[in-house]
Amino acid sequence: xxxxxxxxxxxxxxxxxxxxxxxxxxxxxxxxxxxxxxxxxxxxxxxxxxxxxxxxxxxxxxxxxxxxxxxxxxxxxxxxxxxxxxxxxxxxxxxxxxxxxxxxxxxxxxxxxxxxxxxxxxxxxxxxxxxxxxxxxxxxxxxxxxxxxxxxxxxxxxxxxxxxxxxxxxxxxxxxxxxxxxxxxxxxxxxxxxxxxxxxxxxxxxxxxxxxxxxxxxxxxxxxxxxxxxxxxxxxxxxxxxxxxxxxxxxxxxxxxxxxxxxxxxxxxxxxxxxxxxxxxxxxxxx
Amino acid sequence: xxxxxxxxxxxxxxxxxxxxxxxxxxxxxxxxxxxxxxxxxxxxxxxxxxxxxxxxxxxxxxxxxxxxxxxxxxxxxxxxxxxxxxxxxxxxxxxxxxxxxxxxxxxxxxxxxxxxxxxxxxxxxxxxxxxxxxxxxxxxxxxxxxxxxxxxxxxxxxxxxxxxxxxxxxxxxxxxxxxxxxxxxxxxxxxxxxxxxxxxxxxxxxxxxxxxxxxxxxxxxxxxxxxxxxxxxxxxxxxxxxxxxxxxxxxxxxxxxxxxxxxxxxxxxxxxxxxxxxxxxxxxxxxxxxxxxxxxxxxxxxxxxxxxxxxxxxxxxxxxxxxxxxxxxxxxxxxxxxxxxxxxxxxxxxxxxxxxxxxxxxxxxxxxxxxxxxxxxxxxxxxxxxxxxxxxxxxxxxxxx
Lengths: 287, 401
Known about the structure:
The complex is a heterodimer.
Chain A: H1 2-32, H2 39-57, H3 65-82, H4 92-114, E1 129-132, E2 135-138, H5 139-161, H6 163-173, H7 175-180, H8 185-210, H9 218-232, H10 237-257, H11 263-277
Antiparallel strand pairs in A: 1-2
Chain B: H1 2-18, E1 28-34, H2 41-60, E2 64-66, E3 69-71, E4 73-79, H3 84-96, E5 102-104, H4 109-122, E6 126-128, E7 144-146, H5 156-164, E8 171-177, H6 180-195, E9 199-206, H7 214-222, E10 227-231, H8 234-246, E11 253-256, H9 263-269, E12 277-280, E13 289-290, E14 294-295, H10 296-307, H11 313-332, H12 337-346, E15 349-351, E16 354-356, E17 369-374, E18 377-383, E19 386-387
Parallel strand pairs in B: 1-4, 1-5, 5-6, 6-7, 8-9, 8-10, 10-11
Antiparallel strand pairs in B: 2-3, 12-17, 13-14, 15-16, 17-18, 18-19
């Protein structure tokens, strides 16, 4: 019983991290209709950024989180403005191709610049935990979970209540009408992509504190973010939380009860099931 | 992924056709495809450094004596981007287009397993120090030689040590990744545990590149495991140790097939690497004499001065591969592949890596020394003669470090 509770908690906390990881991908996908295959590569860059800030600037990865997000936002904004805006209305295949290209370039540039050495962001408290009875809760994961909830709710409020958020949604729903109301789509697209990449940067910082960084971590993170976005649905940031949690819990249980080689089977099995049963995602509106 | 690999490989093969200048006509050309980029680059790059280091040194000392003439060595190395199918194509190219004389190996058993089919097909011997899986040497191939000791015995010395430790661990967990090398390790470890009277309380295979070890770690705690043996890759082991800390899982000992001897692995973990056990077939000891480098200690110093990191057994094994080829050519008196192959089967010489002599199946036999990270250093704790230095056992709980 203790084991089950522990593994459930592990799953929930992991799910929180998964949610942060997928939030940016889902936003960009939902609003710009770009499936950003380079999303994981941006998480990787965010992780290196935090590593450098910590090792050379002495900036704690959690305190540096907003700074990381702002820098990555700028990178994302520039990339959308200078490159992706050229193809934003192009067929899906072109956007896939270009983001795939960005992924390859970023990954191999990262190897050139950072080398293939493993890095970890390892502040003294990184392995701390809190014990409740027989259950152990890793502090960093708990914080990441809290951050996921805050960021997701923040995103939700932002999209629903602020002028910029409404403009972003309006552009996604009806470009012509939005333009008639004075929305400048190029700037708006770049803002959206920037926010998505900023979130990826934040996810990278958290990833670096709990796992290991090398130039090649991106591809599998993209795949997982993709699955979470589909499972949760793209319409609503809360869907990403649901998708992340569902995946975290299902994966942890599968690893325990089915076998340690069945994590990915569970992830993509759930993905296929959701596509069959609820193609718009768990929180998506049914057509 | 495969689309990416195919696209990149077509680029690479295209570039390769025009890139490197041909070796000097009289040079003996050695070819290899290693992982300089991609997920396995972290270890693959050691082999390029080792091959180059050995070739430069041997050339500097006069090269290779073939019959009555002295000839230099030349190297042709391709980057296989950590892609097995690309490495097979590159070895085919090395043999058929580049006309290399002899082959050196890639890193990792799954690569050697595939690439040795090329050396066998074209009857060009490949001496490799990157693949230890028993699968490589159980197919009756005649042209593959390996300088890493058998995977099935990686935990052999560790298990002997477990029996000698006090208190003797009761429950043992064996975790292994689902690739050729690690499955071979697990297969060989089970009977050794049984012989030693240790109870295998948890026996789990996990996915290569797994990042989530929380469920396995929770099981380890739940089953009161004393000793954890992990056969996997460095990325997985980094995650394993970090998550063990965050969940306060602290068995009496844990041991890992890779990582512990590698400098950047220890640097990445910092203090958290402390107490981890591992094994190595090679330590830079002055007692290992070498014709070209003097001895292993001097080799390690010169290597670090050149590349900026400490060599581990991967690098030493790579150097031994080049030396074995040179010795075989010299005793064969020719570079004709079949004759060099027969000479390789008979080589027996002292090197910085140990005594190089291949068994009937083509694989070397070397004892594994148990090592542990103590105060940030790799310390040899248990060898053939028993304890070398007292291991820190049982390791302290995470919160009392």
